[in-house]
Amino acid sequence: MGYTLAQKIIKSHLVSGDMTPGTEIGLKIDQTLTQDATGTMAYLEFEAMGIKRVKTEKSVAYIDHNTLQTGFENADDHRYIQTVAKKHGIYFSRPGNGICHQLHLERFGRPGATLIGSDSHTPTAGGIGMLAFGAGGLDVAVAMGGGTYYIPMPRMVKVTLTGRLRPWVSAKDIILEVLRRLTVKGGVGKIIEYGGEGILGLSVPQRATITNMGAELGATTSIFPSDDVTLEFLKAQGRESDWIELLPDGDAKYDEVIEINLSELEPLAAKPHSPDNVDTVKNIGPIKINQVCIGSCTNSSLYDMMRVASILRGNKVHPDVSLAIAPGSKQVFTMIAQNGALADMIAAGARILECACGPCIGMGQSPCSGGVSLRTFNRNFEGRSGTADAKVYLVSPETAAISAITGVLTDPRTLGTEPEIRLPETFLINDNMIEPPADEKEADNIEVVRGPNIKPFPKTSPLSDNIEAPCLLKVGDNITTDHIMPAGAKLLPYRSNIPKLSDYCFTRCDETFPSRAKKAGKGIIVGGSNYGQGSSREHAALVPLYLGIKAVVAKSFARIHMANLVNAGILPLIFRNPDDYDKIAQGDELELNSVRETLISGKDLILTDKTNGAKIPVYCEISERQRKMLLAGGLLNYTREQNR
Ligand code: MIC
Ligand code: SF4
Fold first, then answer.
1. CA 560 to CA 116: how far, in whole Å?
2. Are residues 258 and 387 in the same domain?
3. Could you write out the DSSP letters of every residue in 512-575?
4. Torsion of the alpha carbons at 438, 440, 442 and 445, rounded to the nearest 10
5. CA–centroid distance, residue 441 to ligand 2 (Å)
6. Strand pairing class (605-609; 589-592)
7. In this structure, what are the phi and psi dihedrals at residue 309, rounded to the nearest 5 degrees?
8. Whose CA is nearest to atom 12 of ligand 1?
9. Ligand 2: which atom is nearest the Cα of residue 487?
10. Cystine design at 386: which of 32, 136, 196, 366 (Cβ 3.0–4.6 Å)?
11. What are the Cα distances from residue 20, in Å, to 12, 16, 24, 330, 412?
C-alpha cells in the first residue's frame, strides 16, 4: 500500500511508534521557530536544560508579536531573545523583518523537512510541502536540544480541489469553505492534505493561506505537495537547491476524502465570533463597517498586497472606515515600495503599519465600541481585537479592500474585470535583518541579557495521590486559549512574568476568577468540548498551574493545549460520559482518590462530587511517556528525573 504525502515525511523522520492512528509517534525535528510572545519562555526552558548549542539543522527566533513598546518590557524581551539566540546557535530575525510564518516560508522552510514552532500557525509552511506543527514552548526547547517531538499519529484527510477559482474569489475563500464544512473541531487528530488539479492554479502564498488556517480546523497540520509551483517559488527566493519533488503515492489511502469544486466557490466571510461561522458575502449583505485590517500570517504576501493595491488605486477609503495595512515581511514591504503599490495604498488613505502581527493579536488598532471590523486574519474570537464588544468578520484581501472603499461589506465581484497580477520571477532578497548566531568559540563570551520583567516559571511537584479541590470555574464548549490567558497590547509584555499574568487568567469568562483562585489556593476547571482551541501559548497552562489548578475535566481537548497541560503537570481529564458534565456545578467540592495508582493501571479515575454525591468516571487520553511525565509533575521534572 502506498503512502500519503504526510505519511512519507513521517516515515522518514520516525524515531518511535509504528504509525497506527491514535498511538503516539516520535519524530525527528529538522527546524524550529519561535516568536517573541512564546519565545522568552521557550528559551528560558532551553537554558534550564543546560544544552550549549541547538542540535537542529536550523532554528530561528522571530520578533513579530510584541512590537508595540509602551514600556521597557517588550524591548527587554527582544534583547534577551537576541542574546540567547546568538549564544546558542539560533538565527535571530529582528523586529521589523516581518511575521514569522511569512518569513519562514520565504527564507528557511524546505519541502520534505519537519518543523515545529511555538505558534499554532506554524503549519503555514505546509504550503511548500513541509511537515510543520504548532507546539508549546517546552516542546520546542526539547526539539532545539535534539530531542524527539511526540504527537498522536494523525488520521489522513484528502481535500481534492477541482476546477479553477473564478475572478475575485481567492485562497481565503477556499479555506473558509473548508471551515464551513468541517468546523473548528473538524480537523482534530487529522492531517489535511490538498491535491487535485485545482492546486496547480494556486501559488505557494495562496497555498500557505490555506495551510495557515488549518490551525482553525484544529488539524494537527495541513500540507500541499511540492511540485513545479513550489519550485518556481523557491527559485524566485534564490533557494532552488532546497527543492525536492514530493507527491503522495497513487495508491495512498485516506481516512476521509472531501471534494471542493473551486469553480463553484464565491466570496465568503466568517462572522463573529468563530472562524467556522461562515456565510457568503452576498448573504450577509451590505452591513456598515468601521474598520478594515489587511495583513497577518494568513494574507500578507506580495500577491495579496498587489491585489489590494490594484483595488485601492485611484480610489478613496470611505470616511467612516479606518483601513490599516501591514505587509507580511520586509521583502514584501520593499517590493511594494519599489513598484508603486505602496503609494497607491497611501494615496487612497490607508494607514500603513510595520510588518508584524499588529492588530491580529490586539497589538494596537482595536476597533471602536461595538465596531464592525473586516480582517484578512485567521481568528475572530470575541474580545481578541482588544475591544470587548467589537464584531470581527474574516474575509479575503479582495473583499476587505473593496469594502474599505464602499464603507459596507461588499462582494468584490461587483468590481468587474479582474486585473491580472504578474509576480516577478525573482524576489528581492536582502537578509540583513537576520542575524546569524555566533560560532562556537565566540559563543562562550556572549552574555545573555535579562530584563527585570523576566520572572522564573512556576515550579511543579510530583502528582499527588489524592486531590481535593473546588470546581473553581465551569465553562462551555470551544473555550479558546484567548479566554484562558488573554493576549493584547496590555498583557503581551508580561509573557515572561507569570505572577503578573495570573491576575488576568480567565477574566474573559469571569472577572472574579483570579481572586477566587488565589483565595482557594487550588482548584479544578470544568469545560465542554474542544477545550483550549486556538493558540499554542503554554501560558494557558503555566498560569493556571501557578494559580493551583490541579486538573481540567472536559468533554474533549484541543491537541496542543492538552500537550501543554501535561507538560505543566496538570491532569487533562475527559468525561467518560459527556452528559456527566451537567452533574457538576461551579463551587462544588470535588475529589479524586488513588490518582497515581489508577493512572498507572490505565483504569478510569472516579471524580467524586462531594457536594451532591455524584461519582463521575473520567480518563486521560495520554501515552505511556505522558503518564510518566504527569506522575513526575510535568516535562521539566520528568527530563530531570531521566537525566539523573
Ligand atoms: C495567536 O495567533 O494567537 C498567537 C499569538 O500567534 C499564538 C501564540 C501566542 O499566544 O503567543 C498562537 O497562535 O500560537
Ligand atoms: Fe501573528 Fe496573528 Fe499570525 Fe498569530 S495569527 S502569528 S498573532 S499574525
1. 12
2. no
3. THHHHHHHHS-EEEE--SSBTBS---THHHHHHHHTTEEEEEES-B-HHHHHHHHHHT-EEEEE
4. 100
5. 36
6. antiparallel
7. -60, -40
8. 535
9. 7
10. 366
11. 15, 11, 8, 43, 45
User: Mutation test of ligand 2: which of 104, 121, 124, 480 has the most ligand atoms closer than 8 Å to its C-beta?
Assistant: 121
User: What single-letter amino acid sits at 427?
Assistant: F
| pLDDT per residue as tens digits for the range 526-537 | 999 999 999 999
pLDDT single digits (tens) 447-488 = 999 999 998 778 888 999 999 999 999 999 999 999 999 999
Helix, strand, coil abundance in the chain, percent, nearest 5: 35, 20, 45
Atom of ligand 1 nearest to the CA of 360: 2
* Same domain membership, residue 114 and residue 210: yes
What CATH number is attached to the domain comprising 305? 3.30.499.10
Same domain flag for 233 and 137: yes
Q: What is the DSSP string of 130-163?
A: -EEEE--HHHHHHHHTT--EEEEPPEEEEEEEES
* pLDDT over threshold 80, residue 640: no
Sheet harboring 155-162: ordered strands across?
Answer: 221-223, 190-195, 155-162, 256-261
Which of 340, 352, 77, 129 is CA-nearest to residue 234?
A: 129
Q: Which residue is it, cell 490551525?
A: 215
C-alpha cell belonging to residue 239: 533557494
User: Residue 633 pLDDT more than 90?
Assistant: yes
| Same domain flag for 474 and 341 | no
Radius of gyration from C-alpha coordinates of the chain: 24
The last residue of a domain, from among 264, 281, 313: 264
Largest CA distance in the chain: 71
* Contact between 535 and 481 (Cβ < 8 Å): yes
Q: Could you tell me the residue range of the domain that residue 49 belongs to?
A: 5-264
Q: What is the 3-state secondary structure (H, E, C) of 220-253?
A: CEEECCECHHHHHHHHHCCCHHHCCCECCCCCEC
Helix orientation angle between 302-312 and 397-406, rounded to the nearest 10 degrees: 20
Give the rounded distance of the alpha carbon of 464 from its chain centre: 32
Same domain, 550 and 629: yes
pLDDT tens string 126-155 = 999 999 999 999 999 999 999 999 999 999
Which of 264, 282, 301 is the C-terminal boundary of a domain?
A: 264
Q: How far apart are CA 378 and CA 399, in angstroms?
A: 15
Q: Which residues contact 642 (CB under 8 A, 6 or more apart)?
A: none
Say if residue 291 is in the same domain as residue 176.
no
Does the structure show a pLDDT above 90 at 643? no
Q: Which amino acid is at 443?
A: A
How many whole angstroms from its chain centre is CA 295?
A: 16
Return the best residue to mutate from 293, 361, 392, 491 for the ligand 1 pocket (most ligand atoms within 8 A of CB). Answer: 361
607 CA distance to ligand 1 middle (Å): 33
Is residue 455, in this structure, part of any structural domain at all?
A: no
Q: Quick check: is 165 in a domain?
A: yes
Tell me the DSSP string of 373-389. Answer: EEESSS---TTTTS-TT
Residue 612, domain CATH: 3.20.19.10
Dump the DSSP string for 239-307.
Answer: -GGG---B---TTB--SEEEEEEGGG---EEEPTT-TT-EEEHHHH---B-SEEEE-TTTS-SHHHHHH
Q: Which of 473, 461, 469, 489 is nearest to 638 (CA)?
A: 461
- pLDDT confidence of residue 636: 84
Calculate how far, in angstroms, residue 160's C-alpha sits from the geometric centre of ligand 2. 27
Burial of 369 (0-12, 13-18, 19+ CB in 10 A): exposed
The total number of structural domains that make up the chain? 3
272 and 314 housed in the same domain: yes
Residue 191 lies in a domain: yes
